[in-house]
Design goal:
By secondary structure, the protein is mostly helical. It contains 4 helices and 5 strands. A 3-stranded mixed sheet has the order 1-2-3. Strands 4-5 form a two-stranded antiparallel ribbon. The longest helix is centred in the C-terminal third of the chain and has 25 residues, at 124-148. Belongs to the DinB family.
């Protein structure tokens, strides 16, 4: 598959994940930002920000050819709405970047760095390809954090226990 076709298809796949991700991010209260389920876990606010910023990685991968942990500037949201708008902006930029890809561009190398030291490198295509999986993985973590904080978990690929459009029968099985 050539780079232009791949990028266009990837933009569609990214767009398909946006509604579910928005439903999660819209429910995250920033006052729980410092909460974490375990001392080794990420803080709730950082995890939500990570989910909101992963689409930005696509832009960095393609346009800048690198991300350095030491210099990557994380957004500092002041409200849930601010976080949601940041996510929407990152998705819009990622889609615009994907739809402007030229053939051959995604074969170029991308570098992940820490203080200028290369930790990892591979083609831009390989890195772009893994970003949606990465976002979905962390969105899944986010739903666990939501559940542990009694925040209603939205329907993502099907109903959740909090989805009121489904009920359970006497055996506990979901019924439409």
């Amino acid at each position: 598959m050539n780079d232009i076709l791949f990028a266009a298809e990837f933009a569609k796949e990214l767009e398909a994940e946006v509604p579910s991700t928005l439903k999660c991010l819209e429910r995250i209260p920033l006052e729980l930002s410092g909460w974490k389920p375990h001392e080794k876990s990420m803080e709730f606010g950082y995890l939500a920000l990570l989910v909101a910023e992963i689409p930005l990685w696509i832009t960095h991968i393609i346009k800048k050819s690198e991300i350095d942990f030491a210099t990557f500037q994380h957004y500092k949201p002041t409200s849930t709405r601010d976080m949601v708008n940041h996510f929407k902006q990152n998705v819009a930029e990622a889609k615009e970047t994907l739809l402007s890809v030229k053939d051959g561009e995604l074969g170029e190398l991308f570098y992940l760095k820490a203080n200028g030291q290369v930790l990892f490198s591979s083609s831009k295509k390989e890195n772009v390809e893994s970003t949606i999986n990465h976002m979905v993985h962390h969105r899944g973590q986010l739903t666990v954090y939501m559940r542990l904080n009694d925040i209603a978990v939205p329907s993502i690929y099907g109903p959740s226990a909090d989805d009121k459009s489904f009920t359970t029968d006497s055996r506990g099985a979901k019924q439409p």
